[in-house]
Amino acid sequence: MSTLSTFFALEDDWSRPVPPIGRRDVATGAAVEAIGIATLEMARSAGAFHGVDQPFWVIYLVMSAAAVAVVLRRRFPVATAVYLAAHMFVTGVVMPQVMAQLSLQIVYFVGLFSAMAWGRSRRTSLLVSGTILAFMLCWVGWQFAIGTGLQQYLGDQEATQSEGFLPAIPALVLLTFIVNVAYFVGAIIGGQVAWRSARQREALADQAATIASQAETLRRRAVVDERLRIARELHDVVGHHVSVIGVQAAGARRVHDRDPEATTTALGAIEESSREAVTQMRSLLGTLRDIEGQAEGTGLDQPDRTTGPGAVDLPALVAERSGLRTTYDVVEDREGAAGRLPGPVGLSLYRTVQEALANVERHSTASRASVTLRVTEGGSSPFAEVEVVDDGRQRSGTSGTGLGQLGIRERVASHRGVVDIGPRATRGYRVRVRLPLHGAAGD
């Protein structure tokens, strides 16, 4: 009993969404009507309705009445099944030759199938379908009991002598019951299987939506984490330059009467430091406009940091890799250009290399990796670029979340730079980031 309850989902409260009557239903009903009329006319022409006293238009009306139910089968599944069961009984009593036609048998099957496939309540659908099944089997038994079914069969036979293992009459009764049970039970089980398939699709869709929502939450969390790190870097930049300005201003105030030249030098340092602070703040503030709203409730607990690594720390970062042979090269158009990179730019390049090398160690079969820093101070578009290239393939069983690369892209976007991440045409993987040295945030 528990197995049947599980199969028919009697404890499941889910209701299959029922669509309104649309073009698809009307087209299906029209097709059933056309095919049914055509097959009935062919059967009538072949003499299958010999003995039917009703005029031919009544036969067509019977078919039309069944086709209308097909249009309503999804919108009113249980009511349609009851209606078609009554249609089958009345037609079978008045015009059994018409009821037995294939076109109408298909319609009756579809009606019972739809009750189980589209019924809103599993218990109601099963109760109605089971009642129809019991009624139809009782009707078949009643026909045999009063002799009409047997009389029709015997009237078509020249002899009643059986040629098989069973007597003719018991064989006929048994075969009739088997066919009817297979017909009605098949419709019920088929409809329930269709309902369970719809239920499974709905569950899979819910799971997919949940996974997508979780992935979006992780993506937002990664963005918030990265922006919080940038916010701390902004704090470092402002704190450093304001401290320099404060020291230079204090010195200029003390010596401006005694040493005008030293005062001029201090004021020049203040001007340079303030300009650099404004430039660096512009490159960072664009990504922090909504940081308070996004960071609320994240529960991040990050340690304070007063200084951050930069481009000058890249050689140590590259050299500390274990199990990976690494090389580091610097290409400068002017000597010492790498050491003169602004703090936020140097930090972003450092974090890019750090994340790229970590990904190589975790997810790649590479044995070698090369890091190249390029700095161009001259020309109309000065830039700093870092490129990390390895010689491996993705390691089986390691498919990272992609949040690290998302963090790289977020950093690069804060500088209005360009990022290129992906497999190389030959072999290996490349992470390349180019950041402008001036006008990163625009004027």
Count the domains: 3
Helix content: 55-70%
Number of helices: 14
Integer average pLDDT: 81
Order of helices and strands: HHHHHHHHHHHHEHEEHEE
Distance between the termini: 76 Å
Largest sheet: 5 strands, mixed
Q: Structural class per helix/strand content?
A: alpha+beta
Low-confidence stretches: 290-307, 439-443
Pfam families: HATPase_c, HisKA_3
InterPro entries: HATPase_C_sf, HATPase_dom, Sensor_HK_TwoCompSys, Sig_transdc_His_kin_sub3_dim/P
Protein name: histidine kinase
Catalytic activity: ATP + protein L-histidine = ADP + protein N-phospho-L-histidine
Secondary-structure blueprint:
Blueprint: H1 2-7, H2 23-45, H3 56-71, H4 77-94, H5 96-99, H6 102-118, H7 122-146, H8 148-155, H9 168-255, H10 260-285, H11 291-295, H12 314-319, E1 325-332, H13 343-363, E2 368-376, E3 383-390, H14 403-414, E4 418-423, E5 429-436
Organism: Nocardioides aestuarii
Protein name: histidine kinase
GO molecular function, one term: kinase activity
Describe the 3D structure:
The model is unreliable at 290-307 and 439-443 (pLDDT under 50). It is built from 14 helices and 5 strands. It has a 5-stranded mixed beta sheet. Helix 9 (168-255) runs antiparallel to helix 10. The longest helix is centred in the middle third of the chain and has 88 residues, at 168-255. With 443 residues, the protein is an alpha+beta fold. It has helices at residues 2-7, 23-45, 56-71, 77-94, 96-99, 102-118, 122-146, 148-155, 168-255, 260-285, 291-295, 314-319, 343-363, 403-414; strands at residues 325-332, 368-376, 383-390, 418-423, 429-436. Helix 13 (343-363) links the parallel strand 1 and strand 2. 24% of the residues are buried. It folds into 3 domains: 2-160, no CATH class; 223-295, Up-down Bundle (Single alpha-helices involved in coiled-coils or other helix-helix interfaces); 311-436, Histidine kinase-like ATPase, C-terminal domain (Heat Shock Protein 90, 2-Layer Sandwich), CATH 3.30.565. The protein starts with a helix and ends in a 7-residue tail after the last strand. Keywords: ATP-binding, Kinase, Membrane, Nucleotide-binding, Phosphoprotein, Transferase, Transmembrane, Transmembrane helix, Two-component regulatory system. InterPro entries: HATPase_C_sf, HATPase_dom, Sensor_HK_TwoCompSys, Sig_transdc_His_kin_sub3_dim/P. This is histidine kinase. One of its GO terms (molecular function) is kinase activity. Residues 348-438 form the Histidine kinase/HSP90-like ATPase domain.
